[in-house]
């Protein structure tokens, strides 16, 4: 999927997550915080590709990461997603005063990237280092911009036409962890 496709898909996913009230923080978050965070999160997995937007900006990280894991390797896995969440909690959150809606949107953007890449024939290695790839190849061509745009618009329109107060909750353990994080952040 192209960078444009990931950016569009992430914003559509954010609108859907907000409308479904996936987490209380996303449901009531500040759009001026969440939009940049979801956009950044949607670009992070491609840090393993030196030609990507972030790869060109952060070549010192991108080139070694590309040589070590290759494109659509580690950074496109659930292990990397969880690693980002833990790194944020242990290293970034204690040092910087960043609101919980930024954290939730960043993680949502990252996850939206993985889901979007799963829509391509190459899929993603969710269970990396296992070589199993997960794919639902709706997008047939490698760079099908029209297809990427169509899927993003479809998600966005679907979200906008959802009935009011139609919610989907995350599993209780995940929701509890996110709520504890949110409560901790609002105390300071």
From TrEMBL:
Record bears the keyword Membrane: yes
Q: Where do transmembrane segments lie in this chain?
A: 77-96, 102-128, 149-168
Q: Which organism is it from?
A: Proteus hauseri ATCC 700826
Show the coiled coil region(s). none
What residue stretch is flagged as signal peptide?
none
**Statement: the UniProt record of this protein carries the keyword Membrane:** yes
Q: Give the protein's recorded name.
A: Membrane-bound metal-dependent hydrolase
Q: Sorted alphabetically, which keywords does the UniProt record give?
A: Membrane, Transmembrane, Transmembrane helix
Q: Which InterPro entries match?
A: YdjM (IPR016956), YdjM-like (IPR007404)
Instruction: Specify the superkingdom.
Output: Bacteria
